Structure formats: C-alpha cells, structure tokens
Amino acid sequence: MNAQTCLQLLREIKDAAFATVDENGIPQVRIIDVMLVEEDALYFCTARGKDFFRQLIQTGQVAITGMNRDFQMIRLHGKVQKLPDQKKWIDRIFQYNPSMNHVYPGESRYILEPFCITTGQIEFFDLGKQPIYRQSLSIGQSCSEKKGFTITDSCIGCGHCSIVCPQHCICEGSPYTIEQSHCLHCGLCAEQCPSLAIKRKREV
Amino acid sequence: MNAQTCLQLLREIKDAAFATVDENGIPQVRIIDVMLVEEDALYFCTARGKDFFRQLIQTGQVAITGMNRDFQMIRLHGKVQKLPDQKKWIDRIFQYNPSMNHVYPGESRYILEPFCITTGQIEFFDLGKQPIYRQSLSIGQSCSEKKGFTITDSCIGCGHCSIVCPQHCICEGSPYTIEQSHCLHCGLCAEQCPSLAIKRKREV
C-alpha cells in the first residue's frame, strides 16, 4: 500500500468526510466528493459562500476520512491550498464528475473554488482483517508522525502485556515488542504493565 | 424529519465520521461506529489509549457526519460527555453490537470508555432530491445556529439573484426571499446582487 493507492481508495469511496476547525475552535465535518486524484495530490471544490470555504481559507488545514465496503479506512490530514486558474480546474473537475452539473448547472459552477492537498499524513487501517492492519504514509514534504505505544528497556519480561492485548500483537523478547502494523493503539498493555515500561511514542 | 429520526439515520449508517480538534488545533477525523441511539442521545465508545480519547476529554467537542445510499446526509456537532458507570454502558453497547467482540474480546472491552452526545446542532441535507432539501434541528439545550444568506430591504427587485441561483430557490417579492430549505449556501446570489442586499445571516 503506497500513498497514491490510498488517495485512489478515497477517490473510489468518493463521498468522504472532510473535517475543519471553525472560528470558535469547534470541529465541523461534512460529506464532500473527492473530485480528482492525480500524482499524489487530492482535489476537491466548494462554494465561496459556504462556511467550509471560510474555514479552509482561515486555517489552511483539512482532515479527510472514508471507509469502503471491505472495511478499509483511509485517514488523511494535511495542508490545503486554493488553486489559481480557477476556471481550468473547475472545468476539469466537472469533466470527470458530470453529475455536478445537476447541482451547479451552467455558469453557476464558477461559484466553486478548487482546492488541493499535496502535503499530509495518511493512515491506512484495515478492519476487515484479523488481526487488524494499519500503515502510516505521507505525501509531499510531510514527516510521519509518532503514534501508538512502544515497550522500553524497563520491560521485565513478565508477558502480561502479551496476554491482555486484544489483537495478540505483542511478541516475546527482551524487551517485548509491539507489532505496530497490528496495534489498535488501545493502550491496554500500557495500563496493565507492572513495571510501567510501555510508553506513548509521542511522550518517549 | 425530527432530531430523533436524524440520530436514527446515523445509527443506520453506523460507520460515521467523527471529527475532533487535536492539541495543535488541527482537525482530525476517523470512522467510528454509532453504537446506540436512545431518547435524543447518541452513544459511542473509544479506547483510553487513543488520540481520539484524549481529544474528546480535552475539548469536550465532537462533530459527526454520515451519508446513506439515498444521498441523505446528517451532520451533528455538539458537546460530548464521558459517561459514569463504564461497565454498564460498555456491556450494553456490546450487547447491541456483538461484532465488537472480534476487536475487543473478553475483558479487553473495558479499555473502552462510553461517551454520549445530548446537546448539539443537527443538519439534515438531502442531495438525492431536486431541488436539494435541508433542515436544521437541535438536541438538548442547544440554540439553532444562523447559517446561510438572507435578502434585506435593500433589495431593488431586479431579479438577478433568482436567475443565477443554481437551485432556483429565490422567490419574487419585496424584498425577494430565499427558500431556506432548498438553499445550497453557495453565495452566488450575494456575490451577484447589484445592490449588495444579500447578507450572510451570521453577519446581519
């Protein structure tokens, strides 16, 4: 699974959820069509009158998620840019998404502005598999984030974490190790470790 | 369409997108199951180790959206509460959502904490109809928000707004009026009004 495949999966899901932060710091989310995916970039559009438009312009940030019928979930958050050359992009978007003409017929399409995400973090999460499978990826100049938990050298090898893990994804060793690609990030191992050896990666 | 029906629709969609704001003010969104809907309240759960859990506790705010196969979209944002009596609620949630046992078998379910939304704003949006149909509702002690546009007394009755409206939802009159239930909030009428008579409701 690479970044391009993940973006393509969002394009196939099409009606994805787009989250922003409003002027009061409150999360807002709505379903928006993923209009185009090309060369590691995702394109969408919205109308200049909408709160969504204002939030994109004000914050420059968006988070997107969608899940397909096989319970494969994509999460993406990143920087959003309003594109210059509005008419070219809106025409291109309508060419690939002709049903948009029912909502914005004729010239009214030009109330829409095209946006693009070229930098961000992607998380692929397959809940249809047992154990679950996750993978982190990035697009553009974005460094991958530290998420989840890790077992430090304070591990005493008691194996309690391995017993309680709901996905059975902790392997024996010195120290024990978490198979990151199967971890739910639920935190049960960290709570139950008698030597407090399991830490959040971001706090290590 | 009332609030209870909207929440029930989210329960039927089941895999809805839940948006939060992280510690850096960045929007985050993921697919979460709507676990229960009872008496104008929506219930879900998440694990104590997850970033989602921390964001819920820190901000007390969440926004949810989902769309069904008939292109009916529900948007909800409101205050979120962690519920006391954790075991009672988690057991109840697992009773109604038995597939949760595959992800969190046995006692591992108690790494989950139950949350509830009892106060918030709902927006129902039917994109399957022409013209589109929207309705705002609230649950709990929440006042409904002002969204969209209104035509003020500065209207000179030229009818230009009515011609450009992509959904044909502006009616002749003195002043002209917007049929709010069919309005996209695209803002094209406001941009094109020669007498600047059309204002955002929140700025009026």
UniProtKB/TrEMBL annotation, chains A, B:
InterPro entries per record: 4Fe4S_Fe-S-bd, 4Fe4S_Fe_S_CS, Pyridox_Oxase_N, Split_barrel_FMN-bd
Could you list this entry's UniProt keywords, alphabetically sorted. Iron, Iron-sulfur, Metal-binding
Q: Where is the 4Fe-4S ferredoxin-type domain?
A: 146-170, 174-203
Q: Which GO terms describe its molecular function?
A: iron-sulfur cluster binding; metal ion binding
Recorded hits in Gene3D superfamilies, A to Z, give: 3.30.70.20, Electron Transport, Fmn-binding Protein, Chain A
Question: PROSITE patterns this protein is in?
Answer: 4FE4S_FER_1 (PS00198), 4FE4S_FER_2 (PS51379)
- Specify the superkingdom: Bacteria
Query: What's the name of the protein?
Result: 4Fe-4S ferredoxin-type domain-containing protein
Organism, by scientific name, is Solibaculum mannosilyticum
